[in-house]
Amino acid sequence: MQQRPRAAAAPAGQAGGPRPAYRPRWAWLDTAEEAGVVLLFGLMFLVAFANVVARYFLRFALAFTEEIVLAAFVWATLLGASIAFRRGAHLAFAFFAERLPRTGRRAALWASTACSAVLFAALAYYGVHQVRLEQQLGFTTEALALPQWWYTLGVPVLAVLLLARAVQAAVQADRSLRE
To answer: Where are the domains of the chain?
Structure first.
């Protein structure tokens, strides 16, 4: 009797395919992170390009471009770090951890996750205090005279996102270590 060839497996998230590593209801957050990075880099490019054109043709720089590009760079960096945690793409010093037994690798994973969690919790905590201080003192940006806390607000918000993504990545890695 001749065997039929098996049908190819369905992509992740579809019926019959492997289940995604996290709940699909959070897929919108993945898209929002990536769209945010694209938009921020696009904004940085356009603003910096406008400044170059102004310098070349008008012989003066647009002063506001530096503060916009700098704020967008900080936000894009934090969003990019969040994406990297989700994808498991951060650099790791795994030389010693890979040589440990499974329980040791799991312990190293959770120890490094705890360090990341402390870092991002501290960043969120002190970021909130920085935002409050800027609001109380009425700090404004030099070129556009916008409230400074508008730019700073991204730090504590994105630090909380980073904390969640670090834990999410650790849970996924721990599951793969258990298998």
So the answer is: 26-178
Q: What is the pTM assigned to this prediction?
A: 0.79
pLDDT (tens digit per residue) in 82-138 = 999 988 887 777 778 888 898 898 999 999 999 999 999 999 999 999 999 999 999
Distance from chain centroid for Cα 154? 11
